[in-house]
Design brief:
7-stranded mixed beta sheet, Rossmann fold, alpha/beta, 12 helices, 5-stranded mixed beta sheet, about 350 residues
């Protein structure tokens, strides 16, 4: 299959189209504006619909409406925009509606910086909206991996009738890499399904789709959600383990930070340091076993590397380490990128004497 040289935002837009997305509603915000820009002309070419909403809030509710009809729906934004969408994301979860959500992170908190960051980890994995719901969260580290994940994301969303989040950053969104684009998926003539509005061919046909439940019904729904989360933890964890078999030091990093961390591992290996990398591809469910099952008779420490200060993933790492080895962190924040030389220096200092 021929490769194309594409910008991250545009590549995931094309992957979404080929994966069956036929509705996108969004609002321009740097650094993800090229995603809606691309889809504004690409979706109409395949019979889809693009809407630039008047706000982030309006856009996520348009996605809610489209998803209720069975159309594969998607939105994208960046950090503060996702915060504005959080109520609508919670409503999607409550109504059991599938949707694909892309967060191209930027520096924060507040309006922050338009430069890349990884400061939305807790929001994405713990509290993407009110009500304690969870959703699958993917964190690609190359444009190709982002294409592959976005291509399959509508399938996950429909399987679970749940929103799915792709957590990226402005660096991945705006960088250009070679990608292999997958084939166009064949879609049924009608998007209607047994649970959608209009499933019997009439405007009013279909089950009641609502985010509102009586107390007993809501408790039952939450219990079912716990069962679904356990299925995710059993079947859907994705992780890369790189040179960890004999490692005395293990870096944990995701997304763009993992690209830097992998180079650091290679460089330090050449210097004789036994070091490896655990790269979560799913941030939720978190790859607990990869960390819990390390050989702690050999492992001297773990280092959480993120484009965030503080390192937000550290708590999840420590919950699996359970005090069997120290956990350190190194990061940059607010839109300042990691680079391999300064990161290597920081890791070396940690290895030599603890926190740098």
């Amino acid at each position: 299959m021929a490769k194309e040289f594409m910008k991250g935002n545009e590549a995931i837009g094309e992957a979404a189209v080929r994966g069956g997305v036929r509705f996108f509603a969004g609002y321009p915000i740097t650094p993800q504006s090229e995603l809606p820009e691309y889809l504004s002309w690409r979706l109409p070419e395949v019979g889809g619909c693009f809407v630039q909403g008047e706000s982030e809030v309006a856009s996520i509710n348009m996605v809610y409406g489209a998803a209720a009809t069975g159309v594969r729906a998607m939105t994208g934004s960046s950090s503060p925009g996702i915060s504005l969408k959080s109520e609508g994301i919670s409503y999607l979860s409550a109504a059991e509606l599938p949707a694909v959500i892309v967060n191209m992170q930027r520096g924060g908190p507040g309006l922050g910086s338009i430069q890349p960051a990884q400061q939305d980890y807790l929001q994405a994995t713990k509290a993407a909206g009110h009500g304690g719901f969870r959703m699958l969260v993917f964190a690609p580290y190359t444009v190709q991996e982002a294409v592959d994940i976005v291509y399959d994301a509508p399938e996950y969303a429909e399987r679970d009738r749940s929103p799915v989040m792709i957590l990226m950053d402005g660096c991945l969104g705006t960088m250009m890499e070679e990608v292999e684009l997958p084939p166009m998926k064949e879609l049924p003539e009608s998007p209607c399904k047994p649970w959608t509005v209009g499933y019997d061919g009439t405007k009013r046909g279909g089950h009641l789709i609502t985010p509102i439940y009586p107390e007993a019904g809501l408790e039952g729904k939450n219990k079912l959600a716990v069962q679904r989360t356990r299925r995710w933890e059993e079947n859907d964890v994705k992780v890369e383990e790189f040179m960890v078999d004999d490692a005395e030091w293990v870096i944990v990093a995701y997304g763009m930070s993992a690209r830097v961390a992998k180079q650091v591992v290679l460089d330090l290996r050449e210097e004789g340091v036994k070091i490896g990398l655990i790269r979560p591809i799913t941030l939720f469910p978190f790859p607990k076993k990869s960390i819990a099952n390390l050989d702690y008779t050999k492992v001297k420490g773990l280092i959480d590397i993120e484009m965030s200060i503080p390192a937000l993933m550290r708590e999840d790492i420590e919950l699996q380490v359970l005090g069997r080895a120290p956990v350190y962190e190194y990061g940059r924040s607010g839109g300042i990128l990691l680079d391999d030389e300064s990161t290597k220096t920081a890791v070396r200092k940690i290895i030599e004497g603890g926190e740098q």
